[in-house]
Amino acid sequence: MTAIIRTLPASEIAPPMIAALSAVLIDCVEGGASVSFMHPLTRARADAFWQGVAARVAEGQTELLIAERDGDVVGTVQLCHAVQENQPHRADVAKMLVQRRARRGGIGAALMRAVEARARAAGKTLLVLDTVTGREGERLYARMGWTRVGVVPGYALFPDGAPCDTTFFYKSLAAAPSAAMAGRG
What we know:
5 helices, disordered C terminus
């Protein structure tokens, strides 16, 4: 069954949803994903993280998208709007997570298409993200037309404490100038 992707309003990020989001995050960390947390990730720390995300959603700084399959949350991604005064056109894509049991079914790609659509709807023309070098995420973003900027060696740690390199990507959402506009100067 395919996943349903939707944007969560702040009002839905209550204890039952936080528990579901925490389960996804804990599963990813247990699977070795370098997503800001060390192993073992406690439920309390995971819940606190999602409570912070809920606050940012309520403030309008972040949009939280989820993937649901058979009524279960199996993936998530965040669109974090730049708060800098000189960057109203930009947003970061963060914490793109898919539970291990739900991978290789197109959920990550569906989440990325949805977050890009939300960014366009919000008037964003530039997205940036980072991911562990050499892993599934890097290949996914390259397939989806993201531009690789470069690699920072040892930028973060895997959940077991081993260092990992990080690849930075960007994607321009600006429409290509029309032929008529290209001739103006």
